[in-house]
Design brief:
Number of domains: 2
Largest sheet: none
Number of helices: 7
Strand content: under 5%
């Protein structure tokens, strides 16, 4: 997952626009939020069960990685004429901050509601996961946002990614075009908004809702 985030969040193998260090900071934020959630559980005199130790890390990792890509993508979509890193991050958080907060709030609320159950292992899992989600949101809005701003300053200075203190390139190399985004914008989105695509989406959604209601009676 570290290798995937480090490669996908930047533009590999461009020496300037590759963001290995930013990916490392993002994974570190996820690990710190995980340790914080477990630490708060221990502070509340609660034991850590095996299901929490085995499942919660993947849960927090999925949520944290998703938020990292959303913030980085929002920052890249800001007008290039805005060069101040702090202003770019302000516009990016204005775009994605409310949705990330709403998602984290709903996820944490769902886990904390699970504390009302009488199953001790499930209650412990919900406590660790809820605390981890809250800490992940807090650390991403502080540490990762700051790291992304510093990384933008490095890119503007045309310095290398990992050894930024030693390597500064004279010629600026533009980042490559985002292949998957181009494919989605060119082919997928236009086909999705055709009349046939709308009908297929509505039929699929209705089918999934009906199956979901039918499955509720089988629980």
């Amino acid at each position: 997952m570290f290798m995937y985030v480090s490669i996908a969040i930047g533009f590999f193998p461009n020496p300037v626009h590759t963001r290995f260090l930013l990916g490392a900071v993002g994974i570190s934020v996820v690990l710190m939020s995980l340790f914080s959630g477990m630490g708060l559980t221990f502070f509340g005199n609660q034991e850590l069960t095996m299901i929490s130790a085995e499942v919660v890390p993947f849960l927090i990792l999925a949520i944290g990685v998703d938020n990292m890509f959303l913030i980085a993508r929002a920052e890249r979509s800001i007008n290039k004429q805005i060069t101040d890193p702090r202003l770019r991050m302000a516009y990016a958080l204005k775009e994605m901050g409310p949705s990330i907060f709403a998602a984290a709030f709903c996820e944490a609320l769902a886990f904390f509601i699970g504390l009302l159950t009488d199953v001790p292992a499930l209650r412990n899992f919900c406590l660790v996961a809820g605390c981890g989600v809250v800490m992940d949101f807090f650390l991403q809005m502080t540490i990762f946002v700051g790291a992304l701003s510093l990384d933008n300053m490095r890119v503007n200075a045309n310095r290398g990614d990992i050894f930024c203190c030693f390597y500064k390139f004279e010629e600026k190399k533009p980042r490559r075009r985002e292949c998957f985004r181009h494919i989605f914008q060119t082919y997928f989105v236009p086909s999705l908004f055709t009349n046939v695509g709308k009908v297929l989406v509505m039929c699929t959604t209705t089918f999934l809702v009906i199956i979901g209601f039918m499955s509720c009676f089988k629980l």
